[in-house]
């Protein structure tokens, strides 16, 4: 399963929770990933996040919204930073958020943005102690990382950097290796041993330069019962960012039971779907009894942040 990269020093987290696939035109498409970002320094004087501020923390995350537009060659990226900068200290002081727009080697490729203000302190929820952040980068084929640095000081001229974190652009090609061990019905690859598949199936999402998204499910569906036959079913749902199924494909067979490695107890699965709106793949593995799909395990794979 896909995992986001997290950076923690004091407290920093980068997580991915919401994504959408946007059709810009018939010739240009984009993946937009909302990579939620919150940077909080305990016992510090400045925070970045969103919502009400309590117990030293913003209630929710800010956002680095990445948009990758497909085209000839490398995709063009833009990043929009949304949230709130808080002054969180007893007494007056100043806070700063520095935004660097960087390539994959962490080189700055656009003008650094500095947002700074001074406030009375004592309550981070006061309007005087917070600033709305809404900064959008220039579009670039090199942009792959947003570096966010928090700083604080008694005056604007004495602000020093306290902490740095980053948000990385999503990949336009993501491969998920996974196996599902579900009692009598398993999905993986190659041989079957120890009651489950010996290796992982491959689930893939990738964006072509044309903007078309390709989804691929490749593996082996097994009937795994030593005492008798039964029917195994795998449903591959190719969905948009809202979870609406664009195309559904079903692989099903009735096994004889016994050794799951026997040809009668396994079926090769290869499903490929191309669609402008494809964003995620949902797999459902279970067995069929009296026409009912039962004992179902569900896994979902989608584009995400790094």
Walkthrough of the structure:
The structure is a single chain. 0% of the residues lie in helices and 63% in strands. With 306 residues, the chain is mostly beta strands.
Write a concise synopsis of the structure shown:
The protein is an all-beta fold. The protein has strands at residues 11-23, 29-40, 46-54, 57-60, 62-69, 76-87, 93-102, 113-119, 130-136, 145-153, 160-168, 173-178, 180-182, 185-193, 196-199, 201-207, 213-223, 230-239, 245-255, 266-275, 280-289, 292-302.
Report on the biggest sheet.
Answer: 7 strands, antiparallel
How many helix segments?
0
Low-pLDDT segments = 1-28
Strand content: over 45%
Structural class: mainly beta
Average pLDDT value? Answer: 86
Q: Termini distance?
A: 12 Å
Query: What level of helicity do the residues show?
Result: under 10%
- Specify the overall morphology: elongated
- Give the tally of β-strands: 22
Chain-wise SSE layout:
Blueprint: E1 11-23, E2 29-40, E3 46-54, E4 57-60, E5 62-69, E6 76-87, E7 93-102, E8 113-119, E9 130-136, E10 145-153, E11 160-168, E12 173-178, E13 180-182, E14 185-193, E15 196-199, E16 201-207, E17 213-223, E18 230-239, E19 245-255, E20 266-275, E21 280-289, E22 292-302
Antiparallel strand pairs: 1-2, 2-3, 2-5, 3-4, 3-6, 5-6, 6-9, 7-8, 7-10, 10-11, 12-16, 13-14, 14-15, 14-17, 16-17, 17-20, 18-19, 18-21, 21-22
């Amino acid at each position: 399963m896909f995992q986001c990269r997290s950076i923690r020093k004091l407290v920093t987290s980068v997580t991915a929770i919401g994504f959408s696939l946007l059709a810009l035109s018939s010739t240009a498409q984009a993946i937009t990933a909302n990579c939620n970002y919150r940077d909080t320094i305990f016992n510090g004087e400045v925070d970045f996040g969103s919502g009400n501020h309590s117990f030293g923390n913003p209630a929710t995350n800010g956002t680095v919204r990445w948009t990758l537009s497909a085209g000839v060659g490398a995709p063009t990226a833009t990043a929009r930073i949304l949230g709130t900068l808080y002054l969180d200290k007893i007494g007056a002081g100043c806070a700063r958020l520095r935004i660097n727009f960087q390539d994959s080697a962490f080189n700055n490729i656009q003008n650094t943005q500095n947002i700074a203000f001074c406030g009375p302190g004592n309550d981070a929820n006061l309007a005087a102690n917070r600033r709305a952040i809404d900064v959008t980068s220039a579009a670039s084929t090199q942009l792959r990382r947003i570096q966010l640095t928090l700083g604080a000081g008694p005056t604007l001229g004495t602000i020093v950097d306290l902490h740095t974190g980053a948000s990385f652009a999503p990949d336009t090609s993501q491969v998920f290796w996974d196996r599902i061990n579900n009692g009598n019905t398993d999905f993986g690859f190659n041989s079957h041993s120890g009651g489950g598949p010996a290796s992982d199936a491959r689930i893939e999402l990738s964006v072509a330069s044309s903007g078309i998204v390709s989804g691929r499910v490749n593996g082996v569906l097994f009937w795994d019962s030593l005492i008798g036959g039964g029917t195994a079913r795998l449903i591959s749902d190719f969905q948009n960012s809202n979870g609406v199924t664009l195309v559904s494909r079903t692989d099903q067979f009735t096994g004889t039971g016994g050794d799951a490695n026997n040809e009668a107890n396994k079926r090769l699965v290869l499903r490929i779907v191309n669609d402008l709106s494809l964003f995620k793949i949902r797999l459902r593995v279970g067995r069929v009894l009296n026409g009912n799909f039962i004992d179902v395990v569900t896994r979902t794979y989608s584009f995400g942040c790094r």
